[in-house]
Every structure is written in C-alpha cells, then in structure tokens.
Amino acid sequence: MAPRREHPTGGTIGDIHRTFGEAIARLGMSFADEPAELAMQQLTFEGIPFGQRPALLRRDGSKFYEKSYLEASAVARALVAMNAHVGAINVRRAQPPQPDVVVDYGDRQLFVEQAMILDAAAMEADVAIEDANFALRDAAAGDPQLRALFAGGVFTVRLQSVDVAGGVDKRALANETLALAATISGDVSLLRPDAHAYPVLAASGALVFYRSCAAVTTAPIEAHDLDRWTEYEPALQRVLSQKHAAVAGYDPACRPIWLVLSVSSGFELMPNLVEVTKQVIGDLGSAGFDRVAVQLPRRAPLVVDGV
Fold first, then answer.
1. Is the same domain home to 97 and 242?
2. Is the peptide bond before 297 cis (omega within 30 degrees of 0)?
3. Are 147 and 277 members of one domain?
4. Among 219, 223, 207, which Cα is nearest to 266's?
5. Is the pLDDT of residue 31 over 80?
6. Residue 81 to residues 48, 78, 148, 196, 291: CA-CA distances in angstroms?
7. pLDDT at 225
8. Mean pLDDT over residues 37-47, rounded?
9. How many domains does the chain have?
C-alpha cells in the first residue's frame, strides 16, 4: 500500500491552540471547552502526544484535514467527552479489516469507526473552491502582474449563490477569476462580473472587491453558507446505513467496537438537531456496534449503547 501523503501545518496543535487562545483572550473571551481540548492534546497519537505534533492536511496550505488524521483526532475528542480517555496509552490509525482507529489501553483495546455527518455536495463545492484558490496561487507564482495584484492589496471574489447540487467547475472558476484579476486597476467595490465574459462567476452571483493595502495572504474566492440544514437527516441516515453494512466485514476479534459520528459545524444552529439525531438513531439502532456516539457541536455527545 502506498504511504499516505501528509501535509503538516507550520506549528504543533499545542502551538496553534495557544496562539488562538491568546488572541481571543485579548478580546476578553476564552475557550468554552478548554479542559477537554487540553486533555485531548495529552493523548498519545501514534507515539507522540496530539499537542506536540502538527495537524495533517489534505494538501499543503489546505483548511481541510487529511482524512485519517481527522478520524483519529475526532475519536480522541470523543473519548475525552465521554471520559473514556482515562488509561489510554495510544491512539492510532488503522486499515481494514480493522476499523478506522484503535485505542490501546495496555491490557485491552478499543476499536472505533468514525465518520463525519455533513452535506457532502456542499463539502465538494467548498473543496472545489479551495482548489480554485490553489490554482490562483500557483498562477501568481509565474505571473508578475497577478503577483503584484495580490501583494499590493486584498482581492476578493465573493460567491453569493453556489450550485452545490450541480457541482462547481473549479478550473473554469479559477480561469475566469484569473482573467478578471487582469482587468483590475485601482480599488473596486461590489463589481459584478459581466455574464458574457464570466459566465461561471456571474451564475454564482459573484461580487468582486479590491482594496489597496499592505500585502495580506488571503484566499481570493470565498463562499458562505454552503451547508444546508435539510441535508442533515438524509446524511445521518445514509452514513448510519453504510456503517451498519460495513461492520460485518471487520475482523471479528475487533471488540469492543464503537461508532463515533461527528456532526459538521455547518449544522450546529439547526434548531431541532438533537431531536432529529435521536429519532434517526432510534429508528436505525446500533446494528452491530457496541456503542454509537454522536458528537454534536457545542453539546455533549449523544450516546446509545448497543443491544
């Protein structure tokens, strides 16, 4: 099997946590889950405490975690939230026929399958937008005019309406943005791209801004509110059904086995999030897992023990 391509962040998880903590402290704020975060950082991840190693990203400079790292860190946070981290020696990623993550306790092991509950189409659109921004960054490296634009100010293309279901053509999005950037001269605000010259940008209701200022590192293309509340229940049902079907294929020696489901922060303001989660879990059941734990944003995990 080919080795994972891992792209670490510039600092350790502990460094990032301290920097962010100091920033919000200057605003008179603090972490609501500070004890849990610090406890998670003390857990050993593949021989090194989480807090002493960099987070692993899907690619250099990405805002998205590498999948298997995300699984391990989500499981570690769930262990702390359920007070199941006491006595844990090591958290490590695994491959089939084992579940995603193995937790070693010295005299025993806990096997954990992990999955995110998210709007998959919205996530694909968000990743496509990020990849379009990477294309812009790469183009700027070889284009003096574009490099001067980015170095001399903040260039933002704000997408107002993204066709999440239909997908995002990241190549067209990047190419149109490059062509539009070449026309910028001086500050602009609320510029609406011409539909004939920039059909993809226009279809997304793009608004273009440019402000001359000191150099700032930024992702030019941005979009908001891509997660859609109506997608939560079918996403939860789909993932539960998939994991129920998969559990039979694991090594029978992998016991006890838990399923940890992590709910995307895009759903955290959904008014009936807890009620819908309980209903779906109640309807589908634990189906082969010894415990199902759902990590709900800003709430205690919802835990259902298998029967």
1. yes
2. no
3. no
4. 223
5. no
6. 21, 5, 48, 53, 14
7. 62
8. 89
9. 2
Q: Which two tokens stand for residue 209?
A: 């801004």
Does 276 score more than 90 pLDDT?
yes
CA gap 15, 23 in Å, rounded: 12
Tokens at residue 31, please?
């972490």
The span from the CA of 105 to the CA of 88, in Å, is 4
How many whole angstroms separate alpha carbon 65 and alpha carbon 43?
19
pLDDT digits (tens, 9 = 90+) for 76-121: 989 999 999 999 999 999 988 899 999 999 899 999 999 999 888 8
Which of 302, 260, 257 has its CA nearest to residue 102? 257
- Of the three residues 223, 252, 281, the one that is the final residue of a domain is 223
> Using one digit for the tens of pLDDT, what is the confidence trace for 192-249?
999 999 999 999 999 999 999 876 667 899 987 666 788 899 999 999 999 999 888 8
Report the alpha-carbon distance of residue 37 to residue 49 in Å, rounded: 12
The model carries a pTM of: 0.77
| 99/236 same-domain check | yes
Tokens at 70, concatenated: 């995300």
Structure tokens at 173: 């999005």
Q: How far apart are CA 100 and CA 258, in angstroms?
A: 10
> Are residue 149 and residue 110 in the same domain, yes or no?
no
The phi and psi torsions of 97 (rounded to 5 degrees) equal -85, 15
Whether the CB-CB separation of 201 and 176 falls below 8 Å is answered with yes
Tell me, rounded to whole angstroms, the distance of Cα 229 from its chain centroid.
17
CB 65 within 8 A of CB 55: yes
